[in-house]
Design a protein that fits this description.
Elements: H1 2-27, H2 30-59, H3 65-128, H4 130-138
C-alpha cells in the first residue's frame, strides 16, 4: 500500500505541476501566434501552388479552372440568347401565320361581298324594270 500511496502522490504532483504549466501556456499568446503563422504559411503555399499550376497549364496549353468557368458562363449566356431568338422566331411565325390566314379570309370576304353586290344589283335592276317583273312572274 505504501507503494500505491507514493505512486498516487507522484502522479498528483505531476498532474498539478503540468496542469498549471499548460494553463499558463494557453493563456499566453504563443499558441495563437503559432497557429496564425501556420495558417499564413498554408495560405502562401496554396497561392504559390495555384500560380505554379496556372503557369504550367498555360505552358502545356491546357485550360485552367478559371478558363473553364469563363467558357461555361459564356455558353450559358449564348444558350439564353438562342432560347430568346427561338421564342422570337416562333412568335413571328405565329403572327405571320395569323396574318396570312387573315388575308385569306379577307380575300374570301371580298369575293363573297362582290358576288352579293352583283346579285343585289341584279335584283335592284329587276325590281326597277316593269318588264323584268312580269316576265319573271310568268315563268
Amino acid at each position: 500500500m505504501a507503494e500505491n500511496s507514493s505512486f498516487y502522490k507522484i502522479w498528483k504532483e505531476y498532474y498539478s505541476r503540468y496542469s498549471n504549466f499548460f494553463d499558463e501556456q494557453v493563456t499566453k499568446e504563443f499558441p495563437a501566434q503559432g497557429i496564425g503563422q501556420m495558417l499564413e504559411m498554408n495560405l502562401q503555399f496554396k497561392k504559390m501552388m495555384n500560380e505554379t499550376t496556372e503557369r504550367y497549364y498555360e505552358f502545356v496549353n491546357l485550360p485552367s479552372r478559371n478558363d473553364l468557368v469563363h467558357i461555361s458562363s459564356q455558353i450559358v449566356n449564348i444558350d439564353a440568347k438562342v432560347d430568346d431568338l427561338e421564342e422570337f422566331i416562333q412568335e413571328t411565325k405565329d403572327t405571320q401565320g395569323d396574318s396570312v390566314e387573315l388575308q385569306r379570309e379577307m380575300e374570301n370576304l371580298k369575293k363573297d361581298m362582290k358576288s352579293l353586290d352583283i346579285k343585289l344589283n341584279e335584283l335592284i335592276t329587276l325590281l326597277k324594270s316593269p318588264k323584268g317583273m312580269s316576265t319573271k312572274g310568268t315563268v
